[in-house]
Amino acid sequence: MEYLINYFETIPSLHRSALLVGGIAFFWMLESGLPGRLMNYKKTKHAGLNFFFTATTILVNFSLAGLLLWLSDWTQTHQWGLLYVLSSIPFWAQVLIGVALLDLIGAYFAHWSEHKVKVLWGFHLIHHTDHEVDTTTANRHHPMESVVRFGFTLLAVWITGASVGVIMLYQSLSVVLSQFNHANILLPQWVNQWLQWIVVTPNMHQIHHHHQLPYTDANYGNIFSLWDRIFGTYQYLPADRVVFGVDTYPDAEQNSRLKYLLALAFKPYKSPAQK
Questions:
Q1: What string of H, E and C letters represents the secondary structure of the chain?
Q2: pLDDT of residue 80
Q3: Could you report the average pLDDT of every consecutive run of 10 residues in the chain (275 residues)?
Q4: Residue 275 has what pLDDT?
Q5: CA separation, residue 16 to residues 8, 19, 169, 251 (Å)
Q6: How far apart are CA 180 and CA 222, in angstroms?
Q7: For 199, phi and psi rounded to 5 degrees?
Q8: What confidence score (pLDDT) does residue 273 get?
Q9: What is the pLDDT of residue 92?
Q10: pTM of this prediction?
């Protein structure tokens, strides 16, 4: 475990890029060969729009990375955070708890907040206007949503006192699991039943992309599925009943236009009851 964390402490940028690009490429090929559902769309054109938002997500995170590293270094210097309090437990347990709490605060609570706070929902809405959810949807985030999520990650680091190695391990897992659970694949039910108790599967997360409540406000998890079960936000819907999109903005053609999507965040809030 120490070797793993030492590796992530100094993980080369090339390796991080390989995780992002390699993950997308792998799940792209998998969903192309064995699609979970047949969707009549131009996959490459659809990916082009989502890759633009992926690029802005990378740009935001790269621009703010120094702040994240500084905060982690500050917590280590001042022996600050929950992981310092737990420093007497085995190192592997510290790492597991650290990654789990970063996922809880930096992903689950961030995602939950984006559905409950109207201003944040305006930014997150872009993610839900994708009518053909696939692995490229994972980073379909408005630039301001990327800033918001980065803020939650900072909060998670401040609370936990996570080291750079733990943070990089978490972010690497987050990237790959997000690509996995957005991929247009459906696991065999027997595989999904046991795997879903550990991590968020495509079967589980696709329900979150159903176009109507209460399913849109459910299954917020990114890496670990237990948060939805603990906080009562888990929902089940058969795969053949899932319809991608969001009911307040049902026009698929408009939702594929970049200029429209960038402006969408600043439109007046629409409640789900309005059409």
A1: CHHHHHHHHCCCHHHHHHHHHHHHHHHHHHHHHCCCCCCCCCHHHHHHHHHHHHHHHHHHHHHHHHHHHHHHHHHHHCCCCHHHHCCCCCHHHHHHHHHHHHHHHHHHHHHHHHHHCHHHHHHHHHHHCCCCCCHHHHHCCCHHHHHHHHHHHHHHHHHHCCCHHHHHHHHHHHHHHHHHHHCCCCCCHHHHHHHCCCECCHHHHHHHCECCCCCCCCCCCCCECHHHHHCCCCCCCCHHHCCECCCCCCCCCHHHCHHHHHHHCCCCCCCCCCC
A2: 96
A3: 89 90 94 90 94 96 95 96 96 97 98 96 96 96 96 98 97 97 93 95 97 96 97 96 96 94 91 58
A4: 39
A5: 10, 5, 10, 36
A6: 10
A7: -125, 165
A8: 53
A9: 96
A10: 0.94
- Side chain identity, residue 30: L
Q: Output the CA–CA distances (angstroms, integers) from residue 119 to 71, 114, 145, 179, 251, in the order listed.
A: 27, 8, 10, 26, 22
Could you tell me the two tokens for 75? 């917590």
